[in-house]
Amino acid sequence: MFALVDANAFYVSCEKVFRPGLNGRPVVVLGNNDGCVIARSDEARKLGIKMGAPWFEIRHLEDEAGLVAMSPNFALYADMSDRVMSLVAGLGHRQMVYSIDEAFADLTGIRGDMTLRCRRIRERILKWTGIPCGVGIGSTMTLSKLANFIAKSAERKPGSYPEQHVQVCNLVALPAHEIDQLLARTEVGEIWGVGRRIGAQLQEAGVMTALDLKRLDAAAVKRRWSVVLERTVRELQGTPCIGFEEEVAAKKQIACTRSFGRPVTELSDLQQAVTEFSARVAEKLRRQNSHAGQVLCFIRTSPFRFQDPQYSRSIVVPLRRPSNDNAEIAGAALRGLRFIYRSGYQYAKAGVMLMDIGSADIFQFELPLGSPEDEHNGARGTLMAAIDELNLRYGRGTVQLASAGPQGRAKVWAMRQERMSQGYTTRWDELAVVRA
DNA sequence: TCTGGGGTCCTAGGACCC
DNA sequence: TCTGGGGTCCTAGGACCC
């Protein structure tokens, strides 16, 4: 038996904790560059604002409906998430943090009234963190996801489901025919694992509701669709098929990608962006104590400006040996960038991804202890650790590696002049430079 | 006219998730 | 003018092997 705890409009709820004046108002949190909606309050939802809606299309609602738009504060959301998760941990013996705003709890072996237990946890989370949640309980993870959807829908849209399921919905406590009634009220596309594409195909085949999907033959579903959908069907039927993983698995790929606020044409601007992205992914890589064997770099124009010439290309650059060093990763990404860059295009987005990721421990023994390479790696590792610590303490981007070459040297020189004019001394050969 | 029968590894692309 | 930023898994097909 599983419970799924999911925060309501998480990013917006976090902002409301620190700005209570936002309560009752339509609020959205926008993505990078204030481009599009990544979270919205109920009031904003009622205005018809969809997830992913571009800001310029809904901006008029600021004046017309008092819409409040905010830039995201991901550090705050991560911190609030930690607090919520530590409370959810008290629900069962095992916990699986599924995303920043939701977690499964394994209720197996817990005695007592599960509905009551979940209501109490929900109240505690609300009281101690200010974040409202919905809780769903089911015999499989897919059913607990569905129960969570019912709990939220019942609260948000009165009449969509029976009132007893508001905020906490426990499918395990219901007789079979009542579960089926709830499934019959649920569109097939709402089921976890059924997306737009498969949802449309199912509807075309006459499978309109969650109950219709549950009643399909699992083996036939595998033949016609995939093992993925087969698992979903079996889970709806009450057979657990999805693994419960407590450990946060090490990432197999790590990415940093951004859309630019304005079109970018110059190679130098892309180089600056790619250098920054490289530092970010390398930091994430070191945090999970891994090395990467390959670096992917991509640039692309905006598909929304389809009247402009389009260009999109990526390249995978292998590293000589697996690394988590800023300079080596940035070097590979920049070599790739030079290779795929074409002038004459208005670039809208770029990114760096790390692939072929493995544990750092495996690679460290390849070099003889005390050899020059080993000494070098040790020094670099110490430098990287120092950079990570300073950036953690003083904010991202406080310490960066300057790129080699005339531009990097000019940057270092300018910073050095500035620092010296402030009475500091800096050494010319320092690798780390403090951004004023 | 017939054109082995596996097996592995890799990659690209699709579909899904939040 | 302005359109997010991450991830995972599965499958099909090709290359290659014996």
What would you say about this model in short?
This protein is of the alpha+beta class. It has helices spanning 10-18, 42-46, 55-58, 61-65, 74-88, 114-129, 141-156, 176-184, 196-204, 210-214, 218-224, 227-236, 267-287, 326-340, 360-364, 372-394, 405-421; strands at 2-7, 27-30, 37-40, 68-70, 94-99, 102-106, 133-138, 168-170, 254-264, 290-301, 312-323, 347-359, 399-401, 432-434.
- CATH architecture level-2 label of the largest domain: 2-Layer Sandwich
Strand content: 15-25%
* Overall number of structural domains: 3
Q: Uncertain spans, ≥5 residues at pLDDT below 50?
A: 426-436
CATH fold call of the largest domain = Alpha-Beta Plaits
Strand order of the largest sheet: 5-6-1-7-8
Helix percent band: 40-55%
CATH homology-level superfamily of the largest domain: Reverse transcriptase/Diguanylate cyclase domain
Give the count of helical stretches.
17
Straight-line N-to-C gap: 54 Å
Topology, number of strands = 14
Report the top-level CATH class of the largest domain: Alpha Beta
Shape: globular
Main β-sheet, in a few words?
Answer: 5 strands, mixed
* Derived structural class: alpha+beta
Radius of gyration: 26 Å
Task: Average the pLDDT over all residues and give the rounded result.
Answer: 89
